[in-house]
Design goal:
alpha+beta; six-stranded antiparallel β-barrel; 1 helix; Lipocalin; 136 residues
Length: 136
């Protein structure tokens, strides 16, 4: 009886410590929400020294003098340098997104630039658009 109680206690402690480690990993994932200089919302995620844009909208000016509003999401992870600085470029079928900035404990500040060369549509692009997001 005593041996069964000891073994059960050891297993329970092992499960609790594994649970604590899993909670610590998810606690490390932090969401940031903010706005771009164009007034659109932006949502970002930071986890274990990596950064990812979750979603954002951006206005592009096209060569035919029209405007295109892109709703972007589904980005890959980007490593941040030890000082929090990041820069990356990611490419879709018709669009390219460039971003740079810095991650701190409470904020992510940076700039985004987008181009879109849709099939059969005019070339559209932005200049660098600033964004600022706070930890949630």
């Amino acid at each position: 009886m005593f041996l069964r109680t000891v073994v059960t206690g050891v297993i329970a402690c092992g499960l609790l410590s594994a649970n604590s480690a899993a909670l610590a990993e998810t606690a490390d994932a932090r969401m940031f929400k903010g706005k771009t200089a164009q007034g659109y919302r932006i949502k970002l995620q930071v986890e274990n020294g990596k950064f990812k844009i979750r979603t954002f909208n951006i206005e592009l000016r096209c060569r035919d003098k029209t405007w295109l509003i892109l709703e972007e999401g589904g980005f890959l992870w980007t490593k941040t340098k030890p000082n929090g600085v990041f820069h990356d470029a990611q490419f879709g079928d018709t669009d390219s997104i460039y971003f740079r900035g810095r991650v701190t404990e409470r904020r992510i500040r940076g700039q985004i630039r987008a181009t879109d060369k849709g099939k059969g549509e005019p070339f559209c692009a932005t200049r660098w658009v600033k964004f600022n997001a706070a930890a949630q």
